[in-house]
């Protein structure tokens, strides 16, 4: 099975190699088509995403992607946003699950967030009215809302999850968020065995830090999902432990959802857990559940021993030491 690996920049090159080493050791029989994109490539060539990346994606249809740097407030738009829009990767899925013995406020959390991935404010529709006034247009469509909400309910049914919570700000944005909520109510009626909940986004942010156990599967719009998924990651130890999937009808890109951390790039300090878990989601997608489960089990065992904790977890293990610990655990 051939898969595209987009190595990214910053710590991307280090952790992508770590993920490939672990997946190779699992016996998953993946052939890696390694391509490069991001700020480093842009500085060298003036092209953010070279044609070779598109050709690889369009040939293989499945990719694992490392983090990439996006300048804030200026310059080119995010590679993530560009790829999601180009290939209509409408479902951003982020499982947030407690792992190992990392000390957090909450234990045994198991949440899954479904985030609409192609529109909302992230569609990038902006207008300069004057030097002193800028407009960003929030776009919500029935088609995009229906397919992400339905996917969340189908996931809940297939995985025997108890509830689906829809998050909006429909009390203020009565047209855009109002339509999203109304569609969720309609689809919920098709899944009578799944408990349906609805909540406003500001209350959701508070409830997550009070009692996250009241939630199971969560579905929401693009911007809210981006913010809430990071908050959820904080409940289990940070973004270094959370993977993500960007899935469309005929292509899927899996990733670590954290940034490129240029301050520690090349220092062998980065935690590769998130991209390895992204690789596990990729293996599940490819039907290689035995290998993905073996990797997850090994990660849980390794992260149950503080001597394996990396810098972000207040430990001293290096990227390479952590990677080898996971591989050795799989062999056991």
What's the short story on this structure?
The chain is α/β, with parallel strands linked by helices and 332 residues long. The chain is 40% helix and 19% strand. The protein folds into 2 domains: 1-104 and 237-332, Isopropylmalate Dehydrogenase; 105-236, Isopropylmalate Dehydrogenase (3-Layer(aba) Sandwich).
Number of helices: 11
Strand order of the largest sheet: 2-1-3-12-11-4-5-10-8-9
Shape: globular
> What share of the residues does DSSP label as strand, in percent?
15-25%
- In which range does the helix fraction lie? 40-55%
Largest sheet: 10 strands, mixed
Radius of gyration: 20 Å
CATH class wording of the largest domain? Alpha Beta
> Which stretches are low in confidence, meaning pLDDT under 50 for 5 or more residues running?
none
How is the topology of this model organized?
Layout: E1 2-6, H1 12-25, E2 31-35, H2 39-45, H3 51-60, E3 62-65, H4 79-86, E4 91-97, E5 110-116, E6 126-130, E7 133-136, H5 142-158, E8 163-168, H6 176-188, E9 195-200, H7 201-210, E10 217-220, H8 222-236, E11 243-247, E12 252-256, H9 273-285, H10 289-302, H11 319-331
Parallel strand pairs: 1-2, 1-3, 3-12, 5-10, 8-9, 8-10
Antiparallel strand pairs: 4-5, 4-11, 6-7, 11-12
Helix pairs in contact: 1-9, 1-11, 5-6, 7-8, 9-10, 10-11
């Amino acid at each position: 099975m051939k898969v595209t690996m987009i190595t990214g920049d910053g710590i991307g090159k280090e952790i992508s190699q770590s993920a490939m080493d672990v997946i190779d050791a699992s016996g998953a029989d993946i052939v890696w088509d390694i391509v490069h994109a991001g700020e480093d490539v842009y500085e060298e060539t003036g092209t953010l995403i070279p044609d070779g990346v598109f050709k690889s994606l369009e040939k293989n249809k499945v990719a694992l992607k490392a983090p990439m740097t996006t300048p804030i407030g200026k310059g080119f738009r995010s590679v993530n946003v560009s790829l999601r829009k180009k290939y209509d990767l409408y479902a951003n899925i982020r499982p947030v699950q407690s792992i190992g013995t990392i000390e957090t406020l909450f234990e045994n959390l198991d949440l899954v967030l479904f985030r609409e991935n192609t529109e909302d404010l992230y569609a990038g529709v902006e207008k300069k009215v004057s030097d002193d006034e800028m407009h960003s247009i929030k776009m919500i469509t029935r088609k995009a809302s229906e397919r992400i909400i339905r996917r969340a309910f189908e996931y809940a049914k297939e995985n025997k999850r108890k509830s689906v919570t829809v998050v909006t700000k429909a009390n203020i944005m009565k047209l855009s968020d109002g339509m999203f909520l109304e569609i969720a109510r309609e689809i919920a009626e098709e899944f009578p065995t799944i408990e349906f909940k609805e909540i406003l986004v500001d209350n959701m942010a508070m409830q997550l830090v009070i009692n996250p156990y009241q939630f199971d599967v969560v579905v929401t719009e693009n911007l809210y999902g981006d913010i809430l998924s990071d908050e959820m990651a904080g409940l289990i130890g940070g973004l270094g432990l959370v993977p993500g999937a960007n899935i469309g009808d005929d292509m899927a890109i899996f990733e670590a959802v954290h940034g490129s951390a240029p301050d520690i790039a090349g220092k062998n300090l980065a935690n590769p857990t998130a991209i390895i878990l992204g690789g596990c989601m990729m293996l599940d997608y490819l039907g290689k559940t035995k290998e993905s489960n073996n990797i997850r089990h090994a990660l849980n065992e390794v992260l149950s021993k503080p001597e394996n904790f990396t810098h972000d977890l207040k430990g001293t293990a290096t990227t390479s030491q952590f990677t080898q610990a996971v591989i050795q655990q799989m062999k056991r």
